[in-house]
Structures are given as structure tokens and as C-alpha cells.
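Issue 218. Parser rejects a valid record. Input:
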Amino acid sequence: MISLVKILPPSAPLHHAHLIVGEPAKIVTELKVWLEQRFGTGFTSSSNPDFSLKEFAIWGVDESRELKTFNSRRPITWSVKVAVIVPEIITLEAQNSLLKTLEEPSADTHFFIVTRRLGEYLPTVISRCQIIKLELGMFAEDLVALATDWLSADIVRRWEINKSILKQQEDNSSYGLNWLNCLLDVYWNKV
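Output the parser choked on:
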């Protein structure tokens, strides 16, 4: 993984919205360290009303409205507010609702959206964010090869691959999700 500090030094001017692509757990850990270097020790603590970290299986319209509310209020204890959002999936409705917030951000609010896949975001959302790709080639070569094989295979070969994926899923509960994400990225030629 490329270091966030190398791409975005703590002293660099800060954009109002960032879309960070890579492994969410690693990114959130590094982002918290980076934010404390940028704004001071304790900034990312759970008792800071100016820092919000939200993780969602599915980010919908209601979550985008919550973010709009966070954006509209003034900072309480720090000079800025920071929202870190980590959705596994974001709906189109949520993205459309988010657009207004990204178009008219408060001067003191910064958004960090962490995702595995940039391709699921609308071009209008992407255009309003600074894109930071921390992982180039996020998937293991064997998984990419398997996805490539699956896409070009006949139905019999696909069934064989599916069986092996299910077997791997028994040993590693996140394997299936990684497989599907890799398959989508290979399909859309993003690997």
C-alpha cells in the first residue's frame, strides 16, 4: 500500500472531499494517524464531536442526509470537522443526495470517503473529490487470473471455478467478497 503521507503530506492544502481507494481497514488506521498529525493529538477520539467515522454495509439516502447535517453545523472543539465514511456499497440515490453537500461544502468541513472500488461512484461525485489511490492492483495475481478465466470460460468451467470459490470461502469468510470485487474490476478492466 502506498503511504497516505507521501500522497498527502500533513502540511499540504486540504481539499474539502477525498475519495480514497484501497483496503478500508488499512486506510482508516492510516487516516486516523494522518488526521492526528494534521490537526493534533486526540482529534480522532470517540469523544470529539468534530470527528465522525461511519462504516456502512449499504450507504443510503438517510446516511447522506446525516452527512449533510454534519456539514451544516459549526465545529465545536476544533477549527474543522472531519467525516470519514466507509461504505461497502453506496446507492445511486445516496450519491445523488450527497452531490449537494459536495457542491456546497462548509469551509471548515472535510470528507474522506474510503472505498475498494472507484467504479461504483457516479462521475459527478468523482469530479467533486480529490481521488487518492493507495493500492494499485489490490487483488492477488491468482485471483485476477481466476476472474479472467471465469469471464472467458464456458458454463462448465464457470461451475468448476464457483466450486473452488465456495471451498475457499469456507476457510476464509472474506474470500467470496474479494472474489466478487475482483471479478467486477476485471470485468470493467480496472485491474
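Fixed in the parser; the record now loads. The longest strand covers residues 81-90.
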